[in-house]
Write a structure and sequence with these properties.
Elements: E1 3-9, E2 15-21, H1 25-34, E3 38-44, H2 49-59, H3 63-78, H4 83-93, H5 96-110, H6 115-120, H7 128-140, H8 143-189, H9 194-200, H10 206-220, H11 222-238, H12 251-274, H13 285-289, H14 291-308, H15 319-340
Antiparallel strand pairs: 1-2, 1-3
C-alpha cells in the first residue's frame, strides 16, 4: 500500500505532521478524524525530487481560482456564516488544490490565529499587500468590504495579464519559429555551401563569414547547445514548484544559471579565443587578478550598513530598479577592487 504524508490540527490547536500507510487518501482522513483531529491535507509521500516538485505544483491553486474562492468567501460571510463555517463549506466544494488551501486557513483559525495571520502563511498564493488589507479590514470591522475590494483588484490584474499574454503570444510564436528555422539553416543548409565558401577564400564579407563561423561552431558544439536547451526546459518545468532563489539554491535557479553560464562561456570563447577580440576585457582585470577581494567587498558593505543601521530601501530589492542597482553595485565592486588591490593582495 502507498505511504501518505498528512498534516492535522489537534483540539489544543497544535499542528501535527506524520506518515501513514493506507489504501487511499479517504482512509487517511477517516483515521485522522477518528483520533479527533482536524485533517489539513494528506498526500502520497514523494520519493524523488521530480515527484516532490509535481506534488507541490499540484498544491498551488491557480490565481483565477483563488479570486473565485475569495469572492465566494465574501458572499458566504455576507450571508451570515462565520468565517470558520464559510471556509469549511468552501473546503468541501472546491477543487483539490483550493480545498487544501481552505482547510489550511481553517486549521490556522481554529488554532487561534486571525484570518490575516492565516493568509500570511501562504505568501506564494496571497500577496503581502492583500494580507495587510485583510488586517485593516479585521481591525475596522469591514472585513467583507475588504474581501470584495481584494477580489476586484485581483480581477483587474488577471484581465491585464490575459491581455498582455494574448498580445505577446503571437510575437513569441514568430520568434520561436524563426529560431528553429535559423538553427535548421545553420545545421543543414550552410554546410552544403561550404565548398563554395572555401573557393572564395578571403573574399567573403563579414556577414557571410559570421554565418559560416556560427554554423561551424554550432555543429562542433551541438551537445553543448542541447545541454543548454535541456537546462532551460527543465528549469521552466520546475518553475511552478520552485522559486528562483540563489539564497535557497532552488533547482530553477541552478538550472537557469547553468544555461546562462553555458551561453556566456560559448560567446566569450568565440569572441576572445577564436576571434581574438580581447582588448575590451582589460577593465575586468582587477577582479580576475584578485577574485577574493571582490568576493569580500560586498560583505564589508553589508557590515557597514548593519553597523550604522541603514538598510537598503526595499524598492532596490526587486523589479527594474533592483536590476539597475545590482548593475551599479557590480561596477562599484569592480572599482573598489581596483583601488584596494593597489595596496592589498589576498591569496589562498
Amino acid at each position: 500500500m502507498p505511504q501518505f504524508r498528512y498534516r492535522a490540527v489537534t483540539h489544543a490547536g497544535e499542528i501535527i505532521v506524520g506518515e501513514v500507510e493506507a489504501s487511499s487518501r479517504e482512509e487517511v482522513v477517516r483515521r485522522i478524524e477518528y483520533l479527533g483531529h482536524l485533517p489539513i491535507d494528506a498526500e502520497v509521500a514523494a520519493t524523488g525530487i521530480l515527484t516532490r516538485s509535481r506534488r507541490r505544483a499540484e498544491k498551488s491553486p491557480r490565481s483565477r481560482d483563488v479570486s473565485i474562492f475569495l469572492r465566494q468567501l465574501a458572499l458566504l460571510i455576507g450571508a451570515g456564516l462565520t468565517l470558520e463555517a464559510a471556509l469549511q463549506t468552501l473546503g468541501e466544494d472546491t477543487s483539490k488544490a483550493l480545498a487544501g488551501f481552505a482547510n489550511g486557513l481553517r486549521a490556522s483559525i481554529s488554532a487561534g490565529e486571525s484570518f490575516g495571520e492565516a493568509l500570511e502563511r501562504h505568501p506564494s498564493i496571497i500577496d503581502p499587500a492583500y494580507v495587510a488589507m485583510v488586517r485593516v479590514g479585521e481591525a475596522s470591522g469591514k472585513f467583507e468590504a475588504v474581501l470584495r475590494a481584494i477580489v476586484e483588484d485581483r480581477t483587474r490584474r488577471e484581465l491585464m495579464t490575459d491581455r498582455i499574454n494574448s498580445a505577446i503570444r503571437y510575437p513569441l510564436f514568430l520568434i520561436g519559429t524563426a529560431t528553429i528555422i535559423l538553427l535548421f539553416f545553420l545545421m543543414y543548409v550552410v554546410p552544403q555551401f561550404e565548398p563554395v565558401f572555401k573557393d572564395l577564400g578571403g573574399r567573403l564579407n563579414s556577414g557571410a563569414a559570421l554565418i559560416v563561423a556560427a554554423s561551424i561552431w554550432l555543429r562542433a558544439n551541438v551537445d553543448l547547445f542541447l545541454g543548454m536547451c535541456l537546462f532551460l526546459v527543465v528549469g521552466a518545468w520546475l518553475r511552478p514548484a520552485y522559486t528562483i532563489s540563489k539564497i535557497y539554491a532552488s533547482p530553477t535557479w541552478c538550472l537557469y544559471s547553468a544555461a546562462i553560464c553555458i551561453a556566456l562561456f560559448a560567446a566569450l570563447y568565440w569572441t576572445i579565443d577564436l576571434r581574438g577580440h580581447a582588448r575590451w576585457t582589460r577593465w575586468l582585470a582587477p577582479v580576475a587578478a584578485q577574485p577574493l577581494v571582490a568576493y569580500l567587498i560586498p560583505f564589508v558593505v553589508v557590515g557597514i550598513e548593519d553597523a550604522f543601521g541603514t538598510p537598503l530601501p526595499d524598492v532596490l530589492n526587486h523589479g527594474p530598479l533592483g536590476v539597475g542597482f545590482c548593475a551599479a553595485f557590480a561596477l562599484f565592486v569592480l572599482g573598489a577592487t581596483a583601488l584596494v588591490t593597489r595596496k592589498v593582495r589576498l591569496q589562498l
